[in-house]
Design a protein that fits this description.
117 residues; alpha+beta; five-stranded antiparallel beta sheet; 4 helices; 32% helix; globular
C-alpha cells in the first residue's frame, strides 16, 4: 500500500504513510463501507463523512483514528476524499464522483475521458 491522503476538500488533511497506511486500509476493509464513488484501479475514492466516522469508530484502533474522525466530523460538506500515491490515471472511474474528487485535490480532469453510456 502506498501513502494515503484524506482531505475534507477545504484544506484540512490527514496523511498516513507506508505500513501505517496499509494497516489502516486493512482494518477498514478498504473503506468500502464509507465509499460512495471510487476508481476501479486504485484506492482513490469519495467517502461519506458520517459513514467514515462510523467505520473508523467500529474498526480496530489506529494511530490515525482520532484525526480521521475529527476531519470527517468537521468537514464542510458531506464528503471527504481519499487519495493514494499509486499514480493511477483513473481510467475506470466513470461516475460524477471523479469530478468532485478532482476538485477536492485541485487536479485537472483528464481530457478525453468518457463516462458510462
Amino acid at each position: 500500500m502506498q501513502d494515503l491522503l484524506i482531505s475534507d476538500g477545504d484544506g484540512a488533511t490527514v496523511k498516513v504513510h507506508g505500513a501505517e497506511a496499509a494497516e489502516l486500509w486493512r482494518i477498514t476493509a478498504g473503506f468500502d463501507a464509507a465509499t460512495i464513488s471510487a476508481c476501479g484501479d486504485c484506492g482513490c475514492r469519495v467517502l461519506a463523512a458520517v459513514a467514515l466516522v462510523d467505520l473508523v469508530g467500529r474498526s480496530l484502533p489506529h494511530d490515525a483514528s482520532s484525526a480521521l474522525i475529527d476531519l470527517a466530523d468537521e468537514a464542510p460538506t458531506l464528503h471527504v476524499y481519499l487519495r493514494d500515491s499509486a499514480g493511477c490515471e483513473h481510467r475506470q472511474w466513470r461516475d460524477p464522483g471523479y469530478d468532485e474528487w478532482c476538485g477536492a485535490f485541485g487536479i485537472a480532469r483528464r481530457r478525453g475521458r468518457r463516462g458510462l453510456r
